[in-house]
Amino acid sequence: MERTYFFAAFGTFGNPNGFRQSFFLGGNPSIAKEIRTFDLKTDAIKLLPQTSIYSIRKDYAGGSNLISYSVYTFAKEQNSDRGGTFIGSSLLFIDKTAKENIIINTLNDFHSTLEKNNISDETIMINHSDQFSIEMPKDFDKIGFNLQEMADVDFKKATQQYLVVYCETNPSQLAGFFSKSIDLLNVYDTIYFTQSYEIGEFVKHKRIFKIVDSGGFDKEIERLQEEKQRILQNSISDLEKEKESLEDEKKQVLDNLKRQIELNEKRHQENEVKIKESKKGLDLINREYDQYYQKIEEVIKTLKLDGKIEAAKNKHSENKRSFSQTLTQNTAVESLSPFSSNGVRVQGIRENPPFGNGLPNLHSSGRSHQERRSGKDGFKIATFVLGLLFVGALVLCCMWMPAKYSDVFTLP
Fold first, then answer.
1. CB within 8 A of 61, min separation 6: which ones?
2. Phi/psi of residue 203, each to 5°?
3. Domain ranges of the chain
């Protein structure tokens, strides 16, 4: 079974490689190649000597949802004194996550050995992340026994927004911040945490990333909860309205189907078999509406219990798509009346044909082109015939014309 969590190790290596990242201890290659780099935007946030930054980030790669927990520490490049250089580690989870205290302990363990094996005198001693010497953390396998479902996060939506939190980053404090940050990933793509005053002042001065202290972080959570509650109530209200409208829609659809069937029975007795098949569709449509009604009630109950809006929205969209497909396939009744339509459809299901008015226009255009061409050909033929008649007339005139007049046309 493929492991659902793995590590990334990365750093800045100077010329010619620059920033590089590699994946270790698992990871699907098809997913890994689509993961964004863990490089820092150093004009917005910058590491200084003896400082560190933690982060939590969401990604959507290879058709999977990912959450990554990362740590960055200052490290120099070989033969370079430029600032903002670093070495870092990230623990990535695919479609699952784990308890924050286990994540932090495992991440710090991995990163400590990464620094020990690859840094000397604060300088990275290799030229590429593929050359990193790493060790498996002692609690790495323990994570697999403590996996849990991911929170209700919209992973596919990239907000291009980033938050920096100036706070304590010891393991116990950081675990609380990581836990509260999950919901905020619906607002921010990445959230950084640092206890360095200098880094905080740098971010504040650059004014590219939003920065808050621990109190401001709590206010971010409060605002998110208020917005989430508003969306939750609106979602429930919309579902309730749709549920209420189903009975009227159901009656209208069934009545239309019955009227069409009765008309077919009256005018086309010879198609009795088709009409009987159409009648069977009534029970199917009736059941489909009842089942869809129940599914909406289930989504509402689930939404009220766990408040997971995205999960409820996805489930309702799936139910609605299946419901619409079933109606499309089973509400068409072939009409035999010359005065009625070719079938009864549920309003809103019929789709407009692609490419504008479709083939009729193409046939019409082709016919018009042929008619214009035929007209031109006819004109040429008529001109040729008239020319022949004119020449013939001249010949006849010369043959029967009296001599006294023909002398006029005779060349000397």
1. 31, 32, 34, 35, 36
2. -65, -45
3. 5-208, 228-330
